């Protein structure tokens, strides 16, 4: 069996990142590759020293985590400790974290992506473009610049780095128009827009599970711990749930105003999303999971405008966007033709799989 390395975010406290890596590994296996994520040591040169200390664990990190405990409380802290244990167990069971990117030498291909690996917000990490990897066949799949734009690239004098990185990649695919436009502006190359690995793999077995996760009716809140806690959001969602007599479940993140905070394995989120009455989210993968499960969604866009608005517009779901969750009733009442949405996903999946297969097989320059 041929071997492929994947350069993406791993050991991430995020269900979406775990699921996109899981999906890409499974698809590569179907294409005849033994796939593993490659190790690296990320730098955080463009962010403040406090956050740097948070991610580079040492004695300097102790005040950071004590501050986190003080500001977030024991319940959220314990929840996130449990979540870290659950995600570590998931990775050990389903992922292979391979060799260090600069020392592995027997790979037939390296797939750069998915996720915001082209983002420079934390700092310059050239291996996200395959620089330093001992393999000639480097391709990208559904990569994204995230919030990084030309202003940020020029501010930190990284245009030459990005150009060199993109030039290292033999075939380029991205998952949003913003990233496609940046590739064209910097290199003049045409990048293919493909679907996220969660769509690509489809998770059909997880969606086929017939058991209901619970008997009571519920809505889902899917947002980072520090998001969707403002008074207007809490009041609007709580009022809606109370009027319908349904519970509010927070999946994957802790929100003390929700009825339940559920910490489960990433694969177990699918039955929850499938059985929910509606999903309230401000995240990319919260929207992806809702769409894949054909569950009505209401989405507020924050700093993730470049990728999230494109995703919703691409699937004809722009009417599910609200500037404030005060307007959630309008979005919920908007009918969604999920048959058309799923047909669009099927076509995009076929195109994306064809791109990936042809990119892996065609090693000609």
Would you kindly provide a written description of the structure presented here, covering whatever features stand out?
The protein has 365 residues and is α/β, with parallel strands linked by helices. The chain has 2 domains: 2-57 and 92-200 and 347-361, Rossmann fold, CATH 3.40.50; 204-334, Glycogen Phosphorylase B (Rossmann fold, 3-Layer(aba) Sandwich). Helices cover 45% and strands 14% of the residues. It has helices spanning 15-30, 49-55, 62-94, 150-155, 159-168, 177-187, 197-201, 204-208, 231-244, 269-275, 284-292, 305-314, 328-333, 338-361; strands at residues 2-7, 33-39, 97-100, 109-112, 138-140, 173-174, 192-193, 218-222, 247-251, 260-262, 279-281, 297-300, 321-322. The strands form 3 sheets. Strands 10-9-8-11-12-13 form a 6-stranded parallel sheet. The mean pLDDT is 92.
């Amino acid at each position: 069996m041929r071997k492929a390395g994947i350069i993406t975010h791993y050991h991430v406290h995020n269900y979406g990142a775990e699921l996109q890596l899981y999906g890409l590994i499974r698809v590569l296996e179907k294409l005849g590759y033994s796939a593993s994520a490659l190790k690296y040591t990320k730098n955080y040169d463009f962010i403040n020293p406090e956050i740097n200390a948070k991610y580079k664990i040492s004695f300097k990190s102790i005040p950071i985590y004590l501050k986190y405990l003080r500001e977030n409380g024991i319940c959220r802290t314990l929840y996130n400790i449990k979540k870290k244990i659950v995600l570590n167990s998931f990775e050990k069971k389903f992922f292979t974290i391979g060799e260090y990117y600069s020392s592995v030498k027997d790979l037939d291909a390296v797939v750069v992506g998915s996720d915001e690996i082209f983002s420079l917000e934390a700092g310059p990490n050239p291996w996200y473009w395959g620089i330093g990897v001992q393999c000639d066949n480097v391709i990208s799949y559904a990569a994204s610049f995230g919030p990084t734009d030309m202003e940020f690239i020029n501010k930190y004098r990284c245009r030459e780095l990005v150009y060199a990185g993109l030039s290292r990649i033999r075939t380029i695919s991205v998952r949003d128009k913003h990233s496609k436009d940046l590739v064209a502006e910097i290199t003049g190359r045409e990048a293919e827009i493909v679907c996220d690995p969660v769509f690509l793999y489809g998770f059909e077995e997880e969606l086929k599970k017939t058991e209901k996760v619970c008997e009571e009716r519920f809505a889902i809140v899917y947002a980072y711990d520090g998001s969707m806690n403002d008074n207007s959001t809490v009041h609007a969602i709580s009022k809606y749930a109370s009027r319908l007599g349904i519970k509010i479940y927070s999946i994957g993140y802790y929100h003390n105003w929700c009825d339940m905070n559920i910490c489960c394995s990433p694969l177990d989120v699918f039955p929850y999303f499938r059985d929910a009455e509606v999903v309230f989210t401000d995240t990319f993968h919260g929207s992806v999971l809702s769409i894949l499960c054909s569950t009505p969604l209401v989405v507020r866009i924050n700093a993730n405008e470049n990728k999230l608005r494109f995703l919703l517009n691409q699937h004809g779901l722009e009417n599910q966007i609200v500037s404030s969750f005060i307007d959630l009733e309008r979005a919920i009442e908007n009918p969604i033709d999920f048959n058309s949405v799923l047909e669009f996903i099927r076509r995009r999946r076929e195109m994306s799989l064809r791109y990936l297969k042809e990119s892996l097989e065609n090693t000609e320059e």
